Give the backbone structure.
Amino acid sequence: MDEEDKRGDARVPFVLRVHFQDRAAALNATENLSRGGLFVQTSEALRAGERISLAVSFPGLLEPVALSGEVVWVRRPRPDAVGGAGIRVADRVARERLAAMLGEGPGARPTPSVSGYRVLLVEDNPHVVEMYSYVLKKLAAEELRGRVPMEVHFAQDGHRALVQLQGPSFHLVVTDLYMPVLDGFQLVQRMKADPRLRAVPVVAISGGGTEAQERATDLGVDVYLGKPVKFVQVLETVKRLLRIS
């Protein structure tokens, strides 16, 4: 966003699926939102000054919301970040929709009353597991203020995950895609084929690139995050899927 937008509208890390209306095959996601616009992670060749129409959504939580705006700056791809574009939204109705998504308007979703959350992390790298665990502990301590239990369970591969998923129900599964024994693609496929599991939200986090993202999306994952993933991306994604405002 330009300097005026940065001063007037605080940006909030926020992950939503983005569909460009004139680029049907594109798979993109927001990095952050503000009242005045959004930043979209994308490999599309957008140009500053270009008018763009898009729809943002969050499977299972937010129906597609149509927006239009102007590309005000472009971030080129670099080793530590994917490319993207800052899009300014000027239309009053569209700004009100953005405010509602951020919990600042009458359309904001209330936090449901729950007795606790159970999250399953499926990852064979112990360092990555530690990072995800820290995100969930931070969420439980700060956002939930310790009042709502947050159980975090672990599985090193898809086979062990399926065994655990046959027990007490989980509210969320966060999985890698490339693992031994049974990979994340097969795990998601079997979950979506099981009437007991198909409604459980799934976040796939992988460095597999566009091909992995398209395959995971086709199988039914709710959110795909590309590695290297940012702490705030994981935090905000978990919050939205668990409906924690």
Summary: Residues 177 and 184 are 4 Å apart (CA to CA).
